[in-house]
Amino acid sequence: MNHLIAPSILAADFANLQRDVEMINNSKADWIHVDIMDGMFVPNISFGFPVVKAIKTHAQKPLDVHLMIVDPDRYLKAFADAGAASITVHYEACPHLHRTVQAIKELGCRASVAINPHTTVDLLKDIIADLDMVLVMSVNPGFGGQKFIEHTYTKIKEAKALAEAANPELYIEVDGGVDAYNAAKLISAGANVLVAGNSVFSAADQPTAIAQLKQA
């Protein structure tokens, strides 16, 4: 499976969001990563349904929606209706995870579960066969621009081992501190979807930054 690149719109220029979405459309990126934060599950607030719908209006790549919110079940349909192609919920936020995953699938979206840096991969062993994707957070969620946590490589390898045994087609996504310097090592560990925010949007030539990640 060739790896995918999902630029994180959280790092875009919100005053020029259409421009930045169109840049992604015209780049070698595969998805558009959309971070939803509620100020409760994480100490930051991003945006909600109107902005997701606006992004969808201009997006030509699938929206990879990452819900960093408490009780995400309340809003699954709303985000599917807003244009999500995949919906990621956090293991730490879902007491009835199987139910949540099935609800996402019934909405016609790719079902994904994220784990925070302190959450061990083995906690996913009873559900990994039901997932379309696992998102391994390589920073503590809430803010862009954080330093990459080196233990992430080990967690990706562990997720890859679980997937090979139970779900070989699983997407293994990594988010946080991803750049041209660690992309190849992440892919070698088993990641096949790279989320990149600051390393793309702070670049002088953003399409080239995306292309470099794609070539890693």
From TrEMBL:
Catalytic activity: D-ribulose 5-phosphate = D-xylulose 5-phosphate
EC number: 5.1.3.1
GO cellular component, one term: cytoplasm
Binding site for substrate: S8, H66, G142, F143, G144, G145, D175, G176, G177
Signal sequence annotation: none
Top EC class, one word: isomerase
Pathway: Carbohydrate degradation
Pfam families cross-referenced by the UniProt entry: Ribul_P_3_epim (PF00834)
Comment on bound cofactor: Binds 1 divalent metal cation per subunit.
Cofactor(s) recorded in Swiss-Prot or TrEMBL: Fe(2+); Mn(2+); a divalent metal cation; Zn(2+)
Transmembrane segments: none
UniProt-recorded Gene Ontology molecular function terms: D-ribulose-phosphate 3-epimerase activity; metal ion binding
CDD domains listed in its UniProt record: RPE
InterPro entries: Aldolase_TIM (IPR013785), Ribul_P_3_epim (IPR026019), Ribul_P_3_epim-like (IPR000056), RibuloseP-bd_barrel (IPR011060)
Keyword terms, alphabetized: Carbohydrate metabolism, Cobalt, Isomerase, Manganese, Metal-binding, Zinc
Active site: D35 (proton acceptor), D175 (proton donor)
A single BP term in Gene Ontology: pentose-phosphate shunt
Binding positions for a divalent metal cation per the UniProt entry: H33, D35, H66, D175
Function description: Catalyzes the reversible epimerization of D-ribulose 5-phosphate to D-xylulose 5-phosphate.
Family statement: Belongs to the ribulose-phosphate 3-epimerase family.
Protein name: Ribulose-phosphate 3-epimerase
